């Protein structure tokens, strides 16, 4: 099954890659979690911080790769914090397209 909505990969203000999904619905949230945890071997670290119009989720961690996660009025996002994360997000964007 495919992720629903628009997928955007761009460079964030800190110079690392950010992958955005325009639809933050339950289906996309579960599909993204399935792909990252079951297909790519990531685990989660941290806790949820929920606000009315935005939220921050636990990080996805695998080896040297750490991806920040959250949502806002534009949708879901994954933010790389290092070069390995940048490379992974590039490949994930191709996989989701």
Q: Can you walk through the features of this model?
A:
- Helices cover 29% and strands 38% of the residues.
- It is built from two helices and seven strands.
- Strand 4 and strand 5 form a beta hairpin.
Short description:
The protein has about 100 residues and is α+β, with helices and mostly antiparallel strands. It is built from two helices and seven strands; from the N terminus they run E-E-H-E-E-E-E-E-H. The model has no long low-confidence stretch (mean pLDDT about 90).
Topology record:
Blueprint: E1 7-11, E2 17-21, H1 26-39, E3 43-45, E4 49-50, E5 55-62, E6 65-72, E7 75-80, H2 83-96
Antiparallel strand pairs: 1-2, 2-7, 3-5, 4-5, 5-6, 6-7
Instruction: Give the number of helices.
Output: 2
Q: Order of SSEs, N→C?
A: EEHEEEEEH
Structural class computed from helices and strand pairing: alpha+beta
Percentage beta strand: 35-45%
The low-confidence runs, each spanning 5 or more residues with pLDDT under 50, are: none
Name the overall outline.
Answer: globular
Features:
single chain; 97 residues; alpha+beta
């Amino acid at each position: 099954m495919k992720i629903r909505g628009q997928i955007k990969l761009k460079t964030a203000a800190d110079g690392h890659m950010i992958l955005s999904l325009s639809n933050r619905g339950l289906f996309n949230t579960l599909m993204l979690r399935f792909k990252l945890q079951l297909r790519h071997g990531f685990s989660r670290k941290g806790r949820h911080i929920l606000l009315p119009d935005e939220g921050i989720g636990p990080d996805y961690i695998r080896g040297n790769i750490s991806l920040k996660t959250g949502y806002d009025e534009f949708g879901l996002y994954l933010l790389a914090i290092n070069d390995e994360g940048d490379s992974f997000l590039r490949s994930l964007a191709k996989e989701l397209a």
